[in-house]
Amino acid sequence: MGATASLQHFLGFDVGTQGTKALLVEAASKRIVARAQASYGLIQGLPAGAAEQHPHTWIDAIRATAREVLAGIDPATVLAVGISGQQHGCVVLDERGEVVRPAKLWCDTATAEEARELSAQLGRAVPTGFTASKLTWLKRHEPAHWARVRAVLLPHDYVNFRLTGRKVMESGDASGTGWFDVKQRQFDGAAMAAIDARMADLVPQLVAAGEPAGRLDAAGAKLLGLHEGTLVSAGGGDNMMSAIGSGATRPGVVVASLGTSGTVFTWSPVPVVDPRGLIAPFCSSDGGWLPLLCVMNLTGVTEEVRTAFGTDHAQLTEAAARVAPGCDGMLWLPFLQGERVPDLPQATGTLLGMRPGLLRMGHLYRAALEGTSLNLGWGVDLMRDLGIGVHEVRLVGGAARNVLWRRILAAVLGARVVPLMEPESGALGAALQALWTHQRQSDPRADLAQLSAPYVQLSPEVTEPEPELVAAYRPLVGRYATEVARLSAGLR
What we know:
By secondary structure, the chain is α/β, with parallel strands linked by helices. β18 (280-283) and β19 form a beta hairpin.
């Protein structure tokens, strides 16, 4: 009884595009003691550019992963829960709190025209992926649905609502909506009015970093199998939670998340605003800021090659390793879903330099690795232009395990790359934020970076830039920039 009572568990969920992951941390031993995941996909049969999921899919995954990760755990020892969610998704609720229609996701590019109109109206960039253009699209294309909307939430906000019965939002995830003032950490009235006069009544209450979203109500407790009244932290967007789970809670730590999309971010004590609007000036979910590069095409490109050849990534990597850097002149502009950086939402993927004998799995897989890495490097150079130093990059996400990809990235970025021992930094960050929020109930000065440090371990597999590869990719960096500029001009 005493041993059980001394345990302190903190539960984190990462509700992503391809699935939900759950992770349980035990504070006394500072260990991850259980994990689970549930996979799902997008709604099929939608028009080109549309990417949607029903929020009920996330709730089903939360229920399933909670049951698995908490098997054998005394519910009384779980002191707090945190939620990480895919950013920018648009969840609209009616007056009863029911979902009006499926959520349009971050990778939905069907709203490109609305994003352009909002950008022109506001005099600043509103990326297609941001939530604002999705609401403008809904108002224009589905007026009957829009008329029913009484609340607008982000994916992680919706999960919090289902757990606590409270509609709240926090600055980190809110800064990816397009209607948030990241410098003042408050809603932007002019941006909301540009969407609709009702917007101020549709957005929920803001909660500050470190403050809870609420506590499990009866329905939330039943959903998770925990006690009613269990603390629920504010949560945040997947990048904000990944920052916590990878140690980017202090200056100087640069993280690259290699998933369906690719992101590179770092913590800052002050806002970092890109006049071009390509590097997002996000708030962090711990009270700071998180300048962030996001590309829409990363592991989705390598997955397309895997699917085409019906084999696995290990065999494809082995074949790609036998291909010389530069793929014998073949270059892939990897914009299979359009792209956010560079701002080409209506672009398609382009293979340049194809010749007989090159359309084989080794060449195509290496071209995918190189094209996505070159695009990530193109964006990292924009970050450097803003004064962000990039000398070592921590890698998270499944692709961080690919040694060849790490070698290519190190050479293209001109920086040492090192994976984290725990690749699921979003779920870990959610659990650590829950721990921090719990600690703050008795000690408002609790330090998140200090609390998180024991859980954030670097892998010994450090990859330094190899001089030969750096030299091989240097001309490709210039060629890639030239081809992006040509494509951009052609799409104007």
